[in-house]
Structures are given as structure tokens and as C-alpha cells.
Amino acid sequence: MSYRTKQSVKTVITYLILAIVAVIILFPFFWMISTAFKPNTDIIKRPPIFLPTEPTLVHFQKVFVQVSYFRTLYNSLFVSGMTTLITVFFSTMVGYAIAKFRVVGLNVIFILILSGLMIPPFTIAIPLYIVATQIRMVNTLWGVIIPFSISNFGIFLMRQYCMGVPQDLISAARIDGASEFTILLRIVFPVVATGCTALGILKFLLTWNDLFWPLIMLAEEAKKTLTVMLATFIDFERFVDYGLLMAMTTLVVLPVILLFVIFQRRIIEGVALTGMKG
């Protein structure tokens, strides 16, 4: 077998494996969307059918009637967006300080920050809730945003990116009389924009999908996020309307898909280059 033939066989096998993996990953999404458009008679059919015989929007209509979807969507976008902005800004600021300042004790602080990655977030939920109660932030969106806006992983990631900022560029700005905050905004942020994008994507998705902390903090109906609404609306102990459940899940996933389509190039670029810094 010639070298070209071997390469062709390897390429075919690679694409075949990728196609199988893609089908496995995408099938749950296909089933979710298909079920959302199925009438109840199609949902309970045995054996199950893949496509609805008579597509219907009745389940989506139920969602908008029974749930304040757009209000809940706003809550999720606000919480995820503000958490992402605060995380990216402070992670870059702290990462820049650790990477470029020469101060005694910074390495110890950095080690302590890395040690915080080993602490599960569930273990600090009770003390965080007690503090939130004392400062009257329970049942507020800011009570969901602030506690997890400082990210140990984000500081570590942005420190790695800031290590690549040319020291000569920073020194020239200091000679010109620029303050450290000006250097951060006008030099560091543009240079590490790819890292900010990668961190922002990861933090946004993590916050968007978070259920544990919002479920603890938000009791008022008007303050709930999409994940909390989805978890508390369905009564699994009695009757589950699977068509309604799949319609609600589709509407929860849809904004993230739209964001991916809009920012696809920056997302792929940011994630692809994340592992190249160090």
C-alpha cells in the first residue's frame, strides 16, 4: 500500500470517527427539538418515532402562557453577562499584577489562589449564604452575581496570557507617565483580548447553566433564572408533560446557540489559542 493510499485511509477513518462522535453528541439535541414539536400522541408512541407526524407549536404556547419567559430570560442574561464582565476585568487585573509586578510575596499569593481551585464550591455555600443574609442580598440578582465573580481559574488563565505582554511596551508606557490602570486598559486588555474572550465564553456558559447557587438565593418568581425556572416548574413526582419540558429546554438552550452562531469565529479562536499560552 502506497503512502498516499495510507493517508487517504487514515483520513477516511478519522472523518468516520468524527461523524460518529458528532451524531452521538447532536442526537440528544435533535431529540429535544423533535419532541418539542410533537403532539402528545407522538411522544408516547411505542416504538418511538424520530420526527413529528403533525408538527405543533402548542407546547411553546404553553410555555409563554404558564411562565414569564422573557423576564426570566432577562434575569439569566443579566446574571451571566454581569458575572462574565466582572470576572474578566478582575481576573485580568489580578493576573497582570501577578505576572508583571515584582513584589515580595506575590508568588505565595499566586500559590494560595491556585490552592483555591481544590475547594469545591458547594463547601462554601453555607457561609456565603449567611453573609448574603446579613447584608440583605438574598433573593436579589446581585446576590447571585457577586459571590462567584472572582474566579481562581480566571486569574490563573489571565496570568498566563499576561506573561506574554512585552515588558518593553509596559516600560515605555510608564516612562510616558501612564498610570498602571491606564496601562491595564490601553495596553494589557488589547494584547490579551483572545484570553479575555476564552475566559468570557467559559464563564458565561458556566454561569448560564448554574443551578445550585441561583436555586438557593432566588425564591421570588420574578427573580428566577431560566435554569431555576426549568427545575422548579416541572413536578416529577406527579405528571411530567414531556412536550412542555422539551419546549422549555429548547428555549433555555436557544440563546446560547444564537450567541455561538454570532460569535463563532471569536469563540473558536479564543478556545483554540487558550492552550498555547504558558
Chain-wise SSE layout:
Blueprint: H1 3-36, H2 40-43, H3 58-66, H4 69-100, H5 106-115, H6 125-134, H7 141-145, H8 152-162, H9 167-175, H10 180-191, H11 193-209, H12 212-217, H13 226-233, H14 242-262, H15 264-274
CA-CA gap between termini = 42 Å
CATH homology-level superfamily of the largest domain: MetI-like
Enter the CATH topology name of the largest domain.
MetI-like fold
Oligomerization category of the chains in this entry: single chain
Strand content: under 5%
Characterise this structure.
The chain has two domains: 56 residues; 215 residues, MetI-like fold (Orthogonal Bundle). With 278 residues, the chain is mostly helical. The two termini are 42 Å apart. It contains 15 helices and no strands. Helix content is 72%, strand content 0%. The radius of gyration is 24 Å and the shape is globular.
Provide a quick synopsis of the model.
This protein is 72% helix and 0% strand.
Task: From the structure above, extract its key features.
2 domains; 0% strand; 278 residues; MetI-like fold; globular; mainly alpha; single chain
